[in-house]
Every structure is written in structure tokens, then in C-alpha cells.
Design goal:
By secondary structure, the protein is mostly helical. The chain has a single domain, classed as dinb family like domain (Four Helix Bundle (Hemerythrin (Met), subunit A)). It contains nine helices and two strands; from the N terminus they run αααααββαααα.
């Protein structure tokens, strides 16, 4: 089952590993799939993810989460300006995604997935936060030029998380969304690809 706790952690690590393997061969100056971002900005944004996770793991507690998976995904739009600025500033530095990933792995492996961590959007269960990282890693891996083909389980976790975000907004559209291949759905749900009726009434659910 793709959403089993340990499977989520393992899928994220595999997806990050695919990105780490691909980055050295990429042209940093190539146009990515994100408007206004070259590969270097996407790589910089991706490189922040393990470091942020390491920081948030230090806040782990048994407190009750206050932010749901769906709220976290929908809330990314409120952080878009900050994310864009941070990625551009970080792109000026030589960010080593693989090294940052390697540093966080021991803490991630030892983490209790039932804990709550405090992120920029508030306290969220660690398991749900890792699901959002699967979404980020799959989507931004595909934003690179050439794209990083996602780990199949990470892709399914990302697709399921985005289906949950749609259900919270427009539950009546779930059959149409579920009829799409996972990668097509992820691209449409995040505004990377145009959707047709009836999904165009509610998409993207995050960007």
C-alpha cells in the first residue's frame, strides 16, 4: 500500500536519490518547466527540502497536528513569493542536493512517523509532511530539463495526496480525476498541464 507509513518514507528517499543522481548531468542554465525558473532555480528549491526537513525534525513532538495534508498542499500558494525569492537567492550558491539529502537520512530513518513537526504552515503530522515532500520531489523532478522520471510509488503517493486536496474542494470531480493516469493527474493538479471540463473548474489544487 503506497500510503503505508514506512512506504512513504522509503519512496521519498528513492525519489530524492533519483534527483541526486540526475542533477550532475543537468545544464543549470537550461529552461525548466517552471515559468521564470531555469534548472538552477529548480535545483536550488529542491536542495532546500532536505535541509528544511532536518530543521523540522528537530521540532518533533507528540502534540496534535493543526494542519492537514490537504490544507498544507492548498496553502503553498500563500508562500509562493517567498519560495520564488528563496530559490533565486539560493541559485546563486553551489547547492549540493546529494550532500544535503545524505545528511538528513539518519534523522529521517530514526524519526517516529506518528510525531508532529512544526513547519512554516504550522504543526502537521510527520507522515503527512513526508507525503507533501513526495509531491514536491515528484513535481519538481519533472520540472527539470530533461525531467527526472519519478519513482512509481512516490508518484502514486503524490497523486493520492493531490486527489485528497481535490476532494476537499470539489468531491464531485473525483471520478474524473481518478480516470487520469497518475502523472497526467499530477501535472494537471499542479498547473503543469491544462485540464479540460469538468476538472478545469477546480484545478490547479496547488501550484
Amino acid at each position: 500500500m503506497s500510503n503505508a507509513p514506512d512506504k512513504v518514507r522509503e519512496a521519498l528517499v528513492r525519489q530524492w536519490s533519483l534527483i541526486a543522481d540526475a542533477v550532475p548531468a543537468l545544464d543549470p542554465g537550461a529552461q525548466s518547466r517552471v515559468s521564470g525558473w531555469l534548472n538552477r532555480e529548480v535545483i536550488a528549491h529542491l536542495a532546500m527540502q532536505p535541509s528544511l526537513l532536518a530543521r523540522f525534525l528537530k521540532t518533533a513532538s507528540v502534540a496534535q497536528p493543526e494542519v492537514s495534508l490537504e490544507e498544507n498542499l492548498a496553502g503553498t500558494v500563500t508562500l509562493s513569493e517567498m519560495i520564488n525569492t528563496a530559490a533565486r537567492e539560493a541559485a546563486e550558491a553551489d547547492l549540493d542536493f546529494a550532500a544535503r539529502m545524505t545528511r538528513v537520512l539518519p534523522a529521517l530513518s530514526a524519526a517516529n512517523l506518528n510525531d508532529t513537526v512544526t513547519t512554516m504552515q504550522g504543526p502537521i503530522s510527520l507522515l503527512d509532511y513526508l507525503r507533501t515532500r513526495c509531491v514536491e520531489a515528484v513535481v519538481h523532478g519533472c520540472d527539470l530539463a530533461p525531467p527526472v522520471s519519478p519513482d512509481e510509488e512516490a508518484l502514486q503517493i503524490a497523486a493520492t495526496a493531490l486527489l485528497g486536496a481535490l476532494e476537499a474542494r470539489r468531491g464531485d470531480l473525483m471520478p474524473a480525476a481518478r480516470s487520469l493516469p497518475a502523472l497526467v493527474w499530477v501535472d494537471q493538479a499542479t498547473g503543469r498541464a491544462q485540464s479540460g471540463p469538468p476538472l478545469d473548474e477546480a484545478l490547479p489544487v496547488m501550484s
